[in-house]
Amino acid sequence: MSDDAAGHAGDDAPEDDGAAVPAIRRVAGTGVPLRGDDIDTDQILPARFLKAVTFDDMGEYAFYDQRRDADGELNEHPFNEYQGANVLAVNDNFGCGSSREHAPQGLMRWGVEAIVGESFAEIFQDNCKSLGIATLAVDHGDAVDLQDFIEANPDAGIEVDVREETVRYDGKTVEGDVPDAMREALLEGIWDTTAVMRTNLDRAKEVNDSLPYTDD
Amino acid sequence: MSRGTLYDKVWERHKVADLPNGQDQLFIGLHLVHEVTSPQAFGMLRERDMAVAFPDRTVATTDHIVPTTSEGRDRPLADERAEEMLTHLEQNTEEAGIRFFGLDDDRQGIAHVVGPELGFVQPGMTVVCGDSHTSTHGAFGAIGMGIGTSQIRDVFATGSISADKKAVRRVEVTGELGDGVGAKDVILHVIRELGVDGGVGHVYEYGGEAIRSLDMEGRLAVCNMSIEGGARAGYINPDETTYEYLKGREFAPEGEEFEERKQYWESIRSDEDAQYDDWVEVDADDLAPQVSWGTNPEQVVGVDEPVPAPDETRDPEAAESAQDHTEVTPGETMEGHEVDVAFLGTCTNGRVADFREAARVLKGREVADDVRALAVPGSGTVKRKLEAEGIDQVFKDAGFQWREAGCSMCLAMNDDALEGDEVCASSSNRNYVGRQGSTEGRTHLMSPAMVAAAAVEGAVTDVREFDVAEEVGEPVDDRGADAEVSE
């Protein structure tokens, strides 16, 4: 990994005022390729591991069933092979299915800080935004090229630039798309929306009172 | 940009503010809560020393982890982790003053069954739940959206979510549905046509003759699976079918208030000249019962139609690996494909009408030897109603296990699960690898009637070839004197 590529989320954090979350301008590190379309959240985090009242252990359960062979031994799944990586490279409709936040929580706690792929399911993408995980949508060919590159160069530096909406590796820059709200939220450090929405609580109460169905 | 649609109107009525990230702060009229995705959110709230802002707009039930045998529901639950989740929900809802339908309440059941049948869900509401199948509630002309746990925290703390408006696609389903073909076949067909990711960035407004002809329970099944087509929400404009269903429900308005409310419901219907971002037509005339052959909900075929070769599909690589998993043969029909398990229930097809439909097929017949058949009502209310009508007996006589309400085998967070490489005829919504509890298990999605037929034959069967009973059981309406039997 080259020095200039090494880095981590949150390196542009504003002054901490107690409630703020760090701004995330870029995520730099190494990649983990995960091929296949329509990888659903049941596969990312199997349902039986949802029986926990906190997300603390979810990192251990990411892709649990796919990371083991029939005897329960760890196999050659990318999440076994690319330990320490933080940029996940996927294909189309990643994170479809169940709304469980356990899935992005599991990826995050395993180490994922940004995901580059062809497209993402909406609830999954919203959950990523809430957690400060950047998702960058790129063309099919670009996604496959990135996966090929990581497989050939597992230690090479990869940088997802949220501001520029690009992924940089191997001396080239690939254009992509970070949803506007996610980009704004990450860059401004407002991806945790509770505090800002809480300031509008009086207005929410007005809306509540104005609705025809809230007087039951 | 859409204009004049129900989605536009409901959104505007619920918008609280513009947020600095460019999204809208949207007020939530009904927040359904269950045990799996909420404890972490309550925890986050506590860390921030915040209270639930609108407890009266919040309703909780327990569904995902509950055992479906009556003896299994004795407390403490045998599964310690399930007991812990349930205890957390009990304590959290009590502390916050949230109405909770727990195991000791005979109305307990799946959030997406309980909300509608008790009259909590009404047209023109915004509804969220930490469950992707919240799209179900669009059947009433509500905007129902699944959310993650951090967003649950937001709703607790602010009564709102941060969201951006999607494009509105009108999905016009034309044609008349034949005998033995229903709502589940329609939605599987729509997803097959538009793809599992076809709805990303969109909400679906379903309309057209085939949709209008559906009763409320059918409409709930259609909207339920919107998310399987990638659409965050799907809805149907409210009409007399909707209002008749709501009449007399426990938490629906009554009398004059009902009539007043109806004015709002009518006002939020999409305008005649509403503008849509996209319009697609799907023909359901001569539609055959649909069956999934693969491992995602667009890998579907008519029961009398050959399974496609991988290179005839949108995604040949995915089709090949799916067919490898399910051991189906391209060129052959799904008819005759043997099954080991039949599963009736879930938030898609666990309602009274679904069990009636299956019972018409089962009446006077028996489940094939070696088929394990589970009937799991979506709620205690559904169960009691079927029992009052004598429909439970049809299931028991046929050899089905008659269970208590819960999500059950749909995602197998309780003891109900596929074992090994069992093949399941399932009324549920997802056939992803591992979904029903075994990584080798195989799930074939189909309608309740088709599940019943598969249970009897021990193999996927065209239910249209069955002589089905005209009527089963004695219809009973338990909604009170004002309500008419309309299901």
UniProtKB/TrEMBL annotation, chain A:
Bias (Basic and acidic residues) ranges: 1-11
UniProt key word Amino-acid biosynthesis: yes
Annotated GO MF terms: lyase activity
One record GO biological process: amino acid biosynthetic process
Pathway as given in its UniProt record: Amino-acid biosynthesis
Keywords: Amino-acid biosynthesis, Lyase
Domain Aconitase A/isopropylmalate dehydratase small subunit swivel: 26-138
Region Disordered, annotated ranges: 1-21
InterPro entries associated with the record: Aconitase/3IPM_dehydase_swvl, AconitaseA/IPMdHydase_ssu_swvl, IPMI_Swivel, LeuD
Pfam families in UniProt: Aconitase_C (PF00694)
Entry similarity comment: Belongs to the LeuD family. LeuD type 1 subfamily.
Quaternary structure annotation from Swiss-Prot or TrEMBL: Heterodimer of LeuC and LeuD.
The name this protein goes by in its record: 3-isopropylmalate dehydratase small subunit
UniProtKB/TrEMBL annotation, chain B:
Record region (Disordered): 292-335, 468-487
Pathway membership: Amino-acid biosynthesis; L-leucine biosynthesis; L-leucine from 3-methyl-2-oxobutanoate: step 2/4
Required cofactor(s): [4Fe-4S] cluster
GO molecular function, one term: 3-isopropylmalate dehydratase activity
EC code: 4.2.1.33
Annotated Aconitase/3-isopropylmalate dehydratase large subunit alpha/beta/alpha domain residues: 8-458
Family: Belongs to the aconitase/IPM isomerase family. LeuC type 1 subfamily.
PANTHER family recorded: 3-ISOPROPYLMALATE DEHYDRATASE, HOMOACONITASE, MITOCHONDRIAL-RELATED
Protein name: 3-isopropylmalate dehydratase large subunit
